[in-house]
Design brief:
Structural class: alpha+beta
Order of helices and strands: HEEHEEEEEEH
Strand content: 15-25%
């Protein structure tokens, strides 16, 4: 090889060496440790939201049925007392109803059931009152029991004391302030309703 060819080869070799040195990764010295960069850390914060629900309890006041509803023109207030203590009731029921003036005691008793939302009074085919508020249970109706005759007794109030009615409820005419009384007798002695007989003392 002549001198010119040798110089060309040497120059080409130097160019290749320089190119490799530029592109190759830098050597890692022996005994050294390469640590990869720690990945970026993202801290996640969870916000807990607590919702408090306030429950409002509404108490419906008990209805005082001894308080009379408003009476329109031509209507009267009637107090109906039903003593069912013979069936375990704690006390007699006192209910004020409003009916048309001149209505019968039957109408007043039916108006009581309607106001209370209880079953209508039950009568026999002869017109005898069998049950008030489904007491006694059908078909019982004025029958004889171990202690005697069992039936609903009918009373008239409005004065200082109860008076045993001498006519049936169908013959009574309601006026403002009339007091009607009923008490179930399970045989034995007859007793009047266990309340006052005066309208003013019964009305709320």
């Amino acid at each position: 090889m002549n001198r010119t060819a040798r110089l060309t080869a040497v120059s080409l070799c130097a160019t290749v060496v320089a190119l490799v040195a530029c592109t190759a990764p830098a050597p890692v010295p022996s005994g050294s440790t390469t640590t990869a960069p720690a990945p970026s850390s993202t801290t996640s914060t969870t916000v807990s939201v607590t919702t408090t629900t306030t429950s409002t309890s509404t108490t419906v006041p008990a209805v005082n049925f001894a308080k009379c509803p408003s009476a329109a023109a031509g209507q009267v207030r009637v107090m109906v007392v039903v003593d069912a203590t013979a069936f375990g009731a704690a006390a007699p029921s006192i209910v004020c109803v409003v009916v048309a003036q001149g209505s019968s005691g039957i109408t007043a008793l039916a108006a009581r059931a309607a106001r209370l939302g209880t079953p209508a009074p039950r009568y026999s085919s002869s017109g005898l009152l069998c049950a008030i508020d489904s007491k006694p249970v059908a078909p019982a109706c004025g029958q004889s029991g171990p202690n005697g005759y069992e039936y609903w007794t009918y009373w008239v109030g409005g004065t200082a004391s109860w008076t045993f009615a001498t006519v049936g409820p169908a013959s009574r005419q309601m006026q403002d302030g009339t007091v009607e009384g009923w008490r179930f007798i399970p045989g034995g002695s007859v007793a009047s309703p266990g309340t006052s007989s005066l309208f003013a003392q019964l009305v709320a």
